[in-house]
Amino acid sequence: MKKTCFIICLILLAFNFSGCWSRIEVEDLAIASAVGIDKGETEEFSKILFSVLVVRPENVQGGSGDSSGTGGTGEGGSQAPGWVNFGQGNSVDDARRNLSTTTSKRIFLGHSRVIILGEEKAKEGVGDIVDYLIRNEEIRLRSWLLVTSAGTALETLSLNPELSNTFSDEVDNFLTISAPRASKSYAVNVKNFMVDLTTTGKEAVLPLLEIRTIPPGETTPSGGSQAGGPPQPKKNARLKGLAVFRGDKMVGELGDSETKGFLWIAGKAQRGTLAFRVDNSGVKEPAQVTVEMTRVASKIKTDIVQGKPVVKLKIETEGDIGEFSGTDVKITPEDIELVNQGYRKAIEEQVMLALNKCQKELQADIFGFGTYVHRQQLRYWKEHNLEKKWPEVFPEIQVQVEIKANVRRTGLIQDSIKVE
Amino acid sequence: MVLNKLREKIKGFLGERNKIPSDAGEKKLLHHSLAKNEKYFREVFNRCSDVIFRSFEISTPAPVRVLIIYLDGLSSFIVGEGVVRSLMARYLDDKQRVKKSPLEHAQEHVISIPEIKPEKDLTKLTDFILAGEIILIIDGEPEGLVISSRGWESRGVSEPQSEPLVRGPRDGFTENLRTNTTLIRRRIKSTRLKLESLEIGAITKTAVDIAYIDGIANEKVVAEAKERLKRIKTDSILESGYLEQFIEDNPWSLFPQVDVTERPDKVCGNLLEGRVAILVDNTPFALIIPVLFLQFLQTPEDYYMRPYQATFLRILRFVTLNIALLLPSFYIAITTFHQEMLPTPLLLSIAKARSGVPFPALVEALLMELAFEIVREAGIRLPRPMGQAISIVASLVIGQAAVSAGLVSPAMLIVVALTAMASFSLPTSHATEAIRALRFPIMFLAATLGLFGVMAALLVILIHLCSLRSFGTPYLSPIAPLTLRDLKDIPVRAPWWVMFTRPRLIGYKEPQRQDVGQMPHPPKGREKKT
């Protein structure tokens, strides 16, 4: 009896002594929806500039203020749902802590869906950032990583969202809803980036985000210039190809076509268009064809030919005709074969573009050919100590590309209409 | 130490008074002399104005004085026609009277009331008078006659207020034990339905019937129930709730281990599954033992509905049970500890709703829960016409005004309202009380330890439920211990032609209740028309 009472008292006291450990009310949180990490201004005390886009819940979704405030998100616009703040420090964590000295609430990173790295910092190396991102318990491994192209992450965060509530929502939608429709960018989250970085025989890529300036004279998108004020140049963001890393340093960029080539090889191309010409002998004008790609699969096999690794790349794809201009060419079973051929060629062109750029210029195996060699030719891999030497071997390996392309549907009409 | 001292103090305070005084003195028998008997009864019923003594003479042929004693308020027709008139008028006519004593003769030939028996014990006679019988004492006879005439005024059979159904019988138990037993007997026309009588309460002498079906009910449970009921030494039993607390296996548990109902169909269904019912006089609420926890999520209507609907409702009730128990705690835990668990838009709208609320989530939740409990209690206690006023005031003041005044957030209002609705949707208020009581400690745990606290509390509850027994039957069966056969009736409700066995731990004496393979199908012999 005495003992039971004692134990019950102990248990009851335990709840009091715990003191609501790590308890915090929602309204005391500054919910960061995006994080930007840049190189700091000086080498001495501020190697890292850590910026956050904090959401103002009161201004999200209707409320009194229009969700797209105009006067810049920095310090002025109290209407804007987002608020950008930054701190500097010697390391990422340090910079983040220093950020607290200028923020009245506790900065909460658990809901940041987008992490933007400044180009300068990316070129310098992102090892420290990735370590922080994975070590920190608040950062989600599923948040998207991006690199800015020409500009800092801080600038990018200050962009106004056009269709979504916050800028991070907009970038999130770019990557998940819009980008797959064009196959010109590739969403990478923290976890996949970490895996790519740590896998031998594979280099990492990140999507690039560019700030695009719209001249003031042109038609402005929603929430445009305020009455009275002078027209200001509007800025918005655009996904622009991929940043290629070698090790943890960014070494170059892939343009739109090269990015598509990369996606073909990786089998990640989903939707998008490919425009090419089809020459039909006997007809004066070649037809201009645009194919909407559907169903892409790629297969990578490796072989050792004459003591050297060879990558055999097989791409299978289908497509629908999106545009077909050229009045002289009729769509017949024979001519479709010509279209298929043109489609195949166009793909090959892009694939070779990407391969050449990565092999010759950037020397970064972003396709992960090394991992395939490692898996499929283990003995060769070990004998030649490719674990260490792969970066040197990669630029030299031969890639055989085999493409099967098939156009299946022509849309609602068959032949192009004849304008008379 | 402190506790021990306290206990000793309590002991000292109670002294030796831990037994109630018993009025069962030495056995007194009826005297030959009517005058002496009358004197005795008049003394016993001194200042009992509702006891009527009626003394008159009959001739046998010699005039003999008789006395009838009964409680006022009985049907005067029974007393007048059946007893007094018969005695006065028909006694003389009869020719056989010479052979028998006046008492025997009255019993055999004169009194036209079916239930009648001789009795000579004075104490028992007194009890019979109090129980509403008519006592007839004849001068010179050593025995009195107990003439049954229980004609109490009682409420008619009406629809049970606490357990209304859409489909199902509309009759409910009344305060009259006999009416209640007839309601059961009317449904189970079998000699195997046994009703054993007990009398509990030294002063109230309340009649208690134990009902069970011979051969289906486990006789050990019946014996145990009788044993536990007989052990009760108290002055009064005014409601079956008194008994419930005396016979529970684990009296300190929050969870009831006895089911309560005022529906005869529910009692019969349970009897037929092998359970035992305890009916108490003067209350429409009967007790059912043993009970399983998951039974509290069932209604008799489940068995009358089509199986799909019944199954859906049973699963729904399971969900509402969890909502009623956990929703406020989850809200507190997630909004104060685990903000990363919410989708971003939801977190933003909660943050928006909470901005400007002066209290932490726990205080907010407690305030609203408290307000809700007050409204609930007020709604029950107030006379019906005022209930509407209450609901308007409550919804206006607590709902709108509190939110627009910024005292609570709309999100919390939704949580509390949903919790309230969920707890009302559980069929037995009996079990809901436990859930309601547990909600508050879990809320505290959620506010101090987050989801970890909620989970810890759930584990403690689960362990407790596993350890409970209701008259020896594991409380969580057929889930723990798992009985696959009984799952046809616990998460789902199988069609009737599938349910051919009784619950294994309860009706194992006669496990099969119907023939197998009774699924409706076209007759086998018939040839197909081509």
First-to-last CA distance of chain B: 91 Å
Number of helices of chain A: 12
Low-confidence stretches of chain B: none
What would the average pLDDT of chain A be, to the nearest integer?
82
> Which sheet architecture does the biggest sheet of chain A show?
9 strands, mixed
Cα-atom Rg of chain B, whole angstroms?
Answer: 30 Å
Relative strand content of chain A: 25-35%
- Helix- and strand-based class of chain A? alpha/beta
Backbone shape of chain A? globular
Count of extended strands of chain A: 13
Keywords summarizing the entry:
heterodimer; A: nine-stranded mixed sheet; four-stranded mixed sheet; 32% helix; B: 530 residues; alpha+beta; five-stranded antiparallel sheet; 16 helices; 12% strand; globular
Write the layout of secondary structure elements.
The complex is a heterodimer of chains A (420) and B (530).
Chain A: H1 2-18, E1 29-39, E2 48-55, E3 82-89, H2 92-99, E4 106-108, E5 114-117, H3 119-124, H4 127-135, E6 144-149, H5 153-157, H6 167-182, H7 190-198, E7 205-214, E8 234-246, E9 249-254, H8 256-266, E10 273-278, E11 287-305, E12 308-325, H9 333-362, H10 369-376, H11 378-383, H12 386-393, E13 398-409
Chain B: H1 2-14, H2 34-44, E1 51-59, E2 63-71, H3 76-90, H4 102-110, E3 116-119, H5 122-130, E4 134-138, E5 144-147, H6 177-187, E6 193-200, E7 206-213, H7 219-230, H8 240-247, E8 259-261, H9 264-273, E9 276-280, E10 286-289, H10 307-336, H11 344-354, H12 361-381, H13 384-404, H14 410-424, H15 429-449, H16 451-467, E11 469-470, E12 473-474
Antiparallel strand pairs in B: 1-2, 2-4, 3-5, 4-5, 6-7, 7-9, 8-10, 9-10, 11-12
